[in-house]
Amino acid sequence: MVSSAAKPRSTAPQSDPGKGAAVRDAGSRGIPVPWQLAGLAALFLGLAAALIFSGAAAARSVADPGALVRWGLPVSKAVHNVSLATVVGGLIFAVGILPRGLNARGRDREAAANGAPEHPAFTRVLAVAAVAGAVWTLSAIAVLVLTYADVAGQGLSGDPAFTQALVYFMTDIETGRAWLAVIIIAAVVTTALFGVRSLGGLALTLILALIGLVPTALIGHSSSSSDHEGAINSLGLHLVGVSTWVGGIIILALLSGILTGTKAGAATDITEPTLRRFSTLAGFAFVLVFASGIVNASIRVTSWADLFGSAYGQLILAKSAAAVVLGGIGFMHRQWVIPQLGRKGSTLSSRRVLWQLVLAELLIMGATSGIAVALGRSAPPQPIEPAPNASPAFILSGYDLPPELTPERWLTEWRLDWLWVAVALFGLVTYLLGVAKVRRRGDSWQWFRSLNWVIGLVVLTYITSGPPSVYGRVLFSAHMVDHMALTMVAPIFLVLGAPVTLALRALPARGDGSRGTREWLLVFVHSKFSQLVTHPLFAAANFAGSIVLFYYSDLFGFAMREHVGHELMNLHFLLTGYIFVLSMIGTDPLPLRAPYPMRLLLLLATMGFHAFFGVSIMGGTGLLAADYFGNLGRAWGPSALVDQQTGGAVAWGIGEVPTLLVAIGVAIMWSRSDQRETKRVDRAADRNNDADLTAYNDMFAKLAERDAKLAERNKLEGR
Questions:
Q1: Neighbours of 680 (CB within 10 A)
Q2: What is the DSSP letter of 624?
Q3: Do 495 and 661 form a contact (C-beta atoms < 8 A)?
Q4: What is the spatial distance between Cα 285 and Cα 279, in angstroms, rounded to a whole number?
């Protein structure tokens, strides 16, 4: 494809006098800086309009912190959100979209070894991310100070009393601690951006930047909603999608003029692959943003009257409408503009349309981001304070006690965990798309694998959002059902689905030095970390030992009381079970696989350990997480201690059945492996006329002949 930078000026359309120089530049050199700044101006204009409309910045009759705080806090939050999104978008482009070097052949380490320079787009994106990281850090500090002033209802002051109270706020109050955590994460990410250049280090930096979204999801309206965990999870997913989408658009605007480089004196244009890769990612981000926004809004706004009749609901409608418009622009990108860029005859007009659409996205996103900040400053129509007569269960878990557990309620009591619902839906959609792509290419994919994957996702959703999760918060026995199913049932089906093998078959390999999903999968599979965690001995030790470390430490109580602890518990035990089952019966690629006798030995050892753990719980007289299970105020069912002993029986019984099934699977695989080896030997014998067996028999014949001659000689000599 010919770069627009390499085209002569005469190729640009000259017959449209209504087009100004800025628009012509949008086709040849990307979006001009003044138009990029217009996107930032749209952010603050949208913020100001939304604040005035909702009254969120109006003076208070009691404890008014002053205009500086009332307006400075939302402005600081807007700057914080934009800079954070820019960091995330820049890291995503550096890690998974842009090529690292100008020579687009071979791996990055080979390019670096040959002294290849960085692509100017890669260099700029890291520079932009580093500057945005510094702004992120400073704006987080400003938000922390202004949030305290807003909560305390006083203006900014430099006296010691203000400073002392601020220190107390950020060390002992949840909101203050959350913003302190954001500041620390932002500072670490910024430091890494100024010094890290390896793709592996940048990937870890991206993960840390995404972790920086967690504290902000845990505070505010979500933490005090009626379904606070659903609100927190949906808001967290929303922030991930927004940061990816908005950050990507910002980076595209800033890179619009330098997506070409120089290689051996010729221009290399990466506009089309860059847009195509980001468009795919933006499509997933749009679905995530829109769906999570609807879920989050439905938790806070529970009636049509509140949606249409309150300022809060009207801001939600405005934000939703803007999201739909942005989705439409993204659809235009993918369906019309990007295919034009991929053709050899692409003209300057197609590039002009491309950057005009990106500019429109930037302006609309700026105004939408301002509305989002104002929305966070506005009060929902429903009260967010807990009832003064809250039950002990509500105080401890955030939810009232469910009705007494009966057999039918093992199917009917649900509380959707939107984080795992999103994981399951993403896994289902991407898996089916991968199967369709493989089959379109003419390759086969076993229906048995697809069926197991779907069953595994259904089981995972039932465990994390169904009755095992609901009653696992109030009954240790139900919690143990939840844990054992998460560790031993869902992983069996998911492993049999062979998702990594499918991904490696479906995803195309890149040849321009960038790393896509396929390249990152291969890097991870062959990494030292993967070699450690998937080693059969480590996987078995982690599978068995983490149970004891978790339940006989404060980690168990933390996971029951805190939402983050609960989600980390689910993630840990799912991964622990998945890796262990993968090392036993998986077909996905692994650095090392144990021989079949060792696999059976490890399975027997884990079965014995599970039995020992279950028996110890059954015979225990001390209540685990006593400050939690002992204070729920549950009036139905057995006592907490009796229920815990029942949970020990569950751990023993449920843990053994899946392990036995895995052992049977290992035995079957061992048998099939021997059969394949026998067939291989037979085919080799057919090819060489049983040369190995003939040589083997000849050896014995020669030995027999030698023994006969020796016996004859001894006889003649009279021995």
A1: 10
A2: T
A3: no
A4: 10
Q: How far is Cα of residue 57 from the mean position of the Cα atoms in its chain?
A: 35
DSSP result, 420-485: HHHHHHHHHHHHHHHHHHHHHTT----HHHHHHHHHHHHHHHHHHHSHHHHHHTT-HHHHHHHHHI
Q: Which amino acid is at 611?
A: A
CA angle (563, 378, 187) in 5-degree steps = 55
Q: Which of 238, 223, 214 is nearest to 564 (CA)?
A: 214
Sign for the CA dihedral angle at 115, 119, 125, 127 comes to positive
Q: Check: CB of residue 27 under 8 Å from CB of residue 349.
A: yes
Surface-to-core class of residue 713, CB atoms within 10 Å of its CB (0-12 exposed, 13-18 middle, 19+ buried): exposed
CA proximity to 246, closest of 200, 213, 273, 219: 213
Spatial distance between the Cα atoms of 634 and 522, rounded to a whole number of angstroms: 50
**Where do we find the tokens 């990494």?**
527
Instruction: For residue 630, report the phi and psi dihedrals to the nearest 5 degrees.
Output: -80, -5
- Bridge-partner residues for 263, per DSSP? 266
At residue 593, what is the residue type? R
**Eight-state DSSP code of residue 268:** E
Q: pLDDT-based confidence at 13, cuts 50/70/90?
A: very low
* SS3 assignment, position 91: helix
Q: What is the pTM assigned to this prediction?
A: 0.84
Contact of 451 with 518, CB cutoff 8 Å: no
> Which of the residue ranges 339-343, 371-375, 472-476, 546-550 would you say has the lowest mean pLDDT?
339-343
Within 632-716, strands assigned E span none
Amino acid identity at 466: G
